Amino acid sequence: MNIGSIKNIDWFLLILVIILVVFGLAAIYSTSFDSTKIVNFQKQAIFSVIGFILMAVIILMMDYRMLRTYSGILYLGAVLFLILTIATASMIRGVYSWFDFGSFSFQPTEFIKIILVVSLAKYFSTRDIGDFKHVIISSIYAVIFIALIALQPDMGMAAIFVIIWVSMSVAAGLKFKHFVVLALVLAISGAFSWGYVFKDYQKDRIFIFMDPYKDPQKRGYNIIQSKIAIGSGGLLGKGFGRGTQSQLNFLPEKYSDFIFAAIAEESGFLGVTMLFIIFTCVFRQIFSVIKKINDSFGKLLIFGGGVMIFSGFFINIASNLALVPVTGIPLPFISYGGSSLVATFITIGLIQNVIIRNEESYKIKDNIIDSYQQKC
């Protein structure tokens, strides 16, 4: 790529991402005061640098169109890796999703989300999604991943894979009658999973989510403490490093699953509003650029990447607010977790690469949609 193409980077999106990462580092540092968990801040800082370097390499040295060529190999490798994960991974927080490397751990599914996006973008960009058989075939791509993830069992991550597939199907031109059929299939699958797949503790999460005060000292404890932390923040918060729920360790997983609650307690409504504004700007930048892309594969790659990040944002905050059951999904860019952070940086790198390559190839004088999209 010509070095002059750096000017075509979406600098506003890049700056927003950096702001979010700094925001997350500050939140992790704040929740680590007077504890041995300060190492979490140090690790996250290292992962931030690694993620930024990988993002820069992808932006400047890759061509996203090569992913279309190697999507099949990537998909097969991801399936084999998931099988290996089930067979050999260590149990952390009740799921076999992690590989341990000394003081560091690695969660493959964070990166496999990207491979699902690439695979679906490749498939949908070369098929007429109006033909229902292609809806079925595309579902197989997702179902294989979802089934293997459910065996770990990581239902929160499996839910994100479902969201990615459904959203990309709709974006690719799914007919309404086919959408209704899919909704019925998902409802039936959910009922079957409830009866024959979900473990008792997973069902308990649903029951406790509906009424956490049935077991306030054990299974409902996390949700109750999260709501207390959020509510106690008030307008301006209690101050940096002064959140009583987080600093006195009433709030569980304060630097990962419930970091939003910790932020709300310390920075209040004002801090949470700022966080929402920044995220809103990020999603606006991602989804608004799609109309300028002249390649259906690139369009779907950006859309899928945006959905991937948004689903993590929505599920994490909704679970902190007790709007959905707690699933252990991290808040993108903010929560402690190297795998999530690096994977999200990679996704932003791919989105930027699509933007730059389309500037180079088409100059974006007008929105020339490819022949496949004109036919649809």
Write a brief caption for the model:
By secondary structure, the chain is mainly alpha-helical. The chain is 67% helix and 3% strand.
Description:
The protein has 376 residues and is mainly α. The protein has one domain. The protein has helices at residues 11-30, 38-61, 66-88, 109-125, 132-150, 155-171, 176-196, 200-210, 221-232, 244-247, 259-288, 296-320, 338-362, 371-375, and strands at 90-92, 95-101, 104-106. It has a three-stranded antiparallel beta sheet, with helices on one face. A hairpin with a 2-residue loop joins strand 2 and strand 3. The model is unreliable at 363-376 (pLDDT under 50).
Question: Which features does this protein show?
Answer:
globular; mainly alpha; 3 strands; single chain; 376 residues; three-stranded antiparallel sheet; disordered C terminus; 3% strand
Topology:
Layout: H1 11-30, H2 38-61, H3 66-88, E1 90-92, E2 95-101, E3 104-106, H4 109-125, H5 132-150, H6 155-171, H7 176-196, H8 200-210, H9 221-232, H10 244-247, H11 259-288, H12 296-320, H13 338-362, H14 371-375
Antiparallel strand pairs: 1-2, 2-3
Helix pairs in contact: 1-2, 1-11, 2-13, 3-4, 3-5, 4-5, 4-6, 4-12, 5-6, 6-12, 9-11, 11-12, 12-13
